[in-house]
Amino acid sequence: MNKNYYITTPIYYPSAKPHMGHAYSSIIADFFARFKKIDGFNVYFLTGTDEHGLKIQRSAEKLNKDPKSFCDEISKTFEDLTKTLNLSNTDFIRTTEDRHKVSVQNLWNILEKNNQIFLSKYSGWYSVSDEAFYNEDEVEEKDGLKVAKSSGSAVEWVEEESFFFKLSEWEKPLLDFYEKNKNFILPESRRNEVISFVKSGLKDLSVSRKTFSWGVKVPSDENHVVYVWLDALTNYLSSLKYPDENNELYKSFWPADLHIIGKDILRFHAIYWPAFLLAAKIEPPKRVYGHGWILSGDEKMSKSKGNILDPLEIINIYGLDPLRYYLLKEVSFGNDGNISEEKLENCINSDLANNFGNLCQRVLSFAEKNCSSLIPDHKFTDDDLEILKPLNNLDKIRSFIDNQDINQYMSFIVDRLFSANKYFNDQEPWKKKDDRLRLNTIVYTALELIRKITILLYPVMPETSVKVLNVFNETENSIDFTSIDNNEILKKDLKINKLDILFKKIEK
Question: What is the reported pLDDT for 338?
Fold first, then answer.
């Protein structure tokens, strides 16, 4: 079994400061990366910034800055966000780095050598904001302006000399690829959307620009820069030291296991990217997952609408782990979801303070008073084994992760928490003081439930989970998902450490 796992976020476009949508993609990717890590995988987790293109050049010009200085400042805010979000990323790539330029130019040379690129003239609708070209039927007029139907971004008519990639030749090979790799695009609704688009006919794709200079130079013609998507998508290779295909990183981790992206960039990742790779005789990634948007009210967040939610503000008020928990549990993964302070506060009170926090405090306080803060002896009954049994099903839990079924994973945890609280209530250990072994066994079982559930919560709330596992003298480096299959991990007379209140209820 291959125990290497390569996961990526989109590389973010640093034309403005990060918003909740960026945080969401990153937290999702970190969730999968952390789970795989505690399940014994060598994880390579990549994030970064996409720093070329006309949009960046214009943003820099408005501030009278050169594009590189502008990118240095904005990219730093995204790199800082990785720390604020407590991401476990292996690498942070910037497309202005030399290692990336080498990769892009090498891929270009291969495509050119394979007769996949030709010089012609482009004319059509182009959105600077989306860095995307749109067909006539994808554009509409609103308030006297031409805009892209999908994003609402303004488009302008462009006519210029351009290099083209022969995307039209890849219609059937792509459809064959999707048929052979049915889970390449998830969720299924996105897969259907992509297949429908490809079946409607693919046109050759403009992959260079001549009217601006901020980008990677085309190796065979320095009057052109590589158009942003052929440039940007190559980051997934350049982080692995491509074009050196014999280095250990590349051999170990390519093809990528999972690209986590927003649905608005699905076409680039699910059509253009595999087409580029197949044309260069490079194996495409195993899966692209296009999640929904985090909405502000009922609208997508955008700078122009002034409705951008700042993750830093939410974290400062409520804490990071509650935000991570909320986004993973309350947003239906794959669909759009919104965040409101009221829903976040309800989630903190009901799930975190009343359910998880309360279970930990009740059981640990009882163990302190009745077991001298030591792991007691135990003799399981059928009731005890029955409550522990669902947590021993490693294959079922892994299937949630491997199918990117976050909502099932979170529901499983919430069910286990309710069951654990009910078990402790129903068993009434405070009434068993005349039956010492039974009291001890109830405490032991409840502690085991806390330990197992906390391991499952680690990818969701790493900081909080480490605090709870420290109660059992476990460190972050010792967390092992497979240990939840064992009911005898806690050893008799092991000292139970104190735990502060995990979540304070928010008064309303």
Answer: 82
Sign of CA dihedral 330, 335, 340, 341: positive
What separation, in Å, do the N-terminal and C-terminal C-alpha atoms of the chain show?
51
Q: In whole angstroms, give the CA distance from residue 229 to residue 207.
A: 8
Rounded to whole angstroms, how far apart are CA atoms 152 and 493?
A: 64
User: Taking each helix axis from N to C terminus, what angle separates 67-84 and 54-62, rounded to the nearest 10 degrees?
Assistant: 100
What does the alpha-carbon distance between residue 6 and residue 301 come to, in Å, rounded to a whole number?
Answer: 29
CATH number, domain 341-485, options 2.60.120.330, 1.10.730.10, 1.10.10.10, 3.40.50.720 = 1.10.730.10
- Rounded CA-CA distance 450/502 in Å is 13
* pLDDT at res. 297: 58
Three-state DSSP class for residue 37 = helix
Q: Which two tokens stand for residue 442?
A: 């109830």
Tokens of 311: 């993750």
Q: What predicted TM-score, i.e. pTM, was given to this entire model?
A: 0.93
Give residue limits of the domains in the chain.
Answer: 341-485
Residues of the chain with pLDDT under 70: 1, 296-308
| CB 44 within 8 Å of CB 90 | yes
